[in-house]
Amino acid sequence: MLAAHGIPPLPLRAGKVPFGNCPNCVDNACGGRPNMKTPGPCSCPGVCHAWAAATTDPAVITSPAWATAWRRAAAIAYHPGGAGLTVVDLDDAAAVAWARTALPATLTVETTRGEHWIYRGAMTSRNAVRPGVDVKSLMAYARWLGHGTGAMAPLPEAVHALAVKEPSPARRAPQSLTAPLRGHKGDCPHRTLAYLERGITMAVQRITEARSAVHATVYRTFLAVLSTHGRCGCLTDTHVNRLFTAAQAKGESPRHCTDAWANALTTLGL
Q: Which residue among 88, 93, 151, 162 is least crowded, i.e. fewest CB within 10 A of its CB?
């Protein structure tokens, strides 16, 4: 078992996404557990808060709520940062070829389209640090795909540099957003539902018309939608599904959509 080796596991639903939060934690009502930067078990009875739910506590893992989640799980993930690890997620052959010339050899795990390079040491996570490359460590989760091959190397400065380099415009949050998140309890500043519908339609069109830098365009679009509509609670699952569907039609995976949405929420402090 992963937990016995100090690796905090987490069950995933189909599509490689976490289980939903419990009713007490919907819309971050519990006080922001996902925004905490230190690993540790969630205090809720269910499998809440994505990466923050990952735990090595046997009492939690074997609890009735978790037992139900394990039975329904389509895959297993883990919190690399909670185990003192960093995963360089290489999504395609081009990214793997780059890593072989730019990074020191380490423990390698094959994925569906590429490889996970796992280093000893934790750091800040960041997606899309270069084409086809994500860095997953603190406040992130990675799929468990086996023990891999090779010897694990210490986390190199070259990987640190990927996460601290100047961020692209796609990851800069609008500076005017300073109000706290109100979720569904705040007053909606939009006068008509047509305003929201027009915004979602324009966002879908922007993603659909992207001819290059699709990953960055998806993130930037998610960020724009959330900056306008994410604080008053007017967004519904139907709206979000329209955005995800448009992104996946351009080749984005469900995981990339989920990561981009979560990163946009974090950037905006939602």
A: 151
Distance of alpha carbon 249 from alpha carbon 144, whole angstroms: 26
- For residue 15, give the DSSP letter: T
Summarize the confidence of residues 252-263 as an average pLDDT: 83
From 129, 133, 130, 127, select the one nearest 113 (Cα to Cα): 133
Reading phi first (left if > 0) and then psi (alpha if -120 to 50, else beta), residue 18 is in beta
CA atoms of 248 and 187, how far apart (whole Å):
32
What percent helix, strand, coil does the chain show, rounded to 5?
45, 15, 40
The pTM (predicted TM-score) of the whole model is 0.57
Say whether 114 sits in a helix, a strand or coil. Answer: coil
Q: Which residues are CB-neighbours of 203 under 8 A, at least 6 positions away?
A: 221, 224, 225, 243, 246
Q: Are 226 and 270 in contact (CB under 8 A)?
A: yes
Share of the chain above pLDDT 70, in %: 79
Residues 6+ apart with CB under 8 A from 106: 117, 118, 119, 150, 151, 152, 153
Range of 23-37, 43-57, 143-157, 218-232 with top mean pLDDT: 143-157
